[in-house]
Amino acid sequence: MHADLELLQRHFAQGLIEPGLMDEALTTFKGDPDLNRERFALYRGNIVAIWQQTLANAYPVLQRLLGADFFNDLARIYGQTMPSLSGNLTELGAALPDFIGSLENCRAYPYLSDVASLEWRVHQAYYAEHSTAITLAELATFPPEQLGELQCRLQPDCALFESPWSVAAIWSAHQNEPVVFPDNLAEQTYCLIWRQPWQTRWDVQVSPLSCASYVALTALQNGQSLGAAIEMAVQEDPEFAVQTALADWFSRQLFVSASLT
Question: How far apart are the C-alpha atoms of 111 and 251, rounded to whole Å?
């Protein structure tokens, strides 16, 4: 009995995802075959609509770049090709950036995959935990000679992203009306994805970074000490303003803890 139910469920799921397999799934159902076919089509339509709406929620900028019709077709093909492995709909679009990069009809717009990658990080930041942040005043409680040895752990809702395309500018342009597209699409971008907890816990921001700041924050995210991270930033840019950078990072409440290595 268990095996029969499992087989029925498998045929039903496959028939929903692949229209060509619907006839095989219908053989397991009683009643009028034509009516069953209509009901099956309703189920499939609902699933496709869920794919489209879920991906539109996660990728609003990408939807506008592609247009609603193309985006809906993309969502349908993506849902059929990349079935979700999670019961959480917020995780449905995780593979979409790579999927777009594999599509022949998107090759003329090579920045689309990176825009999608940035949007996915924004989407993840929206749902991520935000902890109480450590302040500069708390940092000052450590002896000055030990500051360089500190490990500063970034907030769970912080992410760093780099791209050879102007993805941060493209994202920012679509947050306002009218949309003013950047003049230069092929421009190296470093950016920080973070939340503004003092306004609303859902206010995700994308802020451009200098290469040196990106290098330093990436080093901290990877467990390097504050001194090592700053040294790497200075190597990247000898004029890197350490005090300004620290003030900026702590004003954005980027760190949840600081501890000696």
Answer: 31
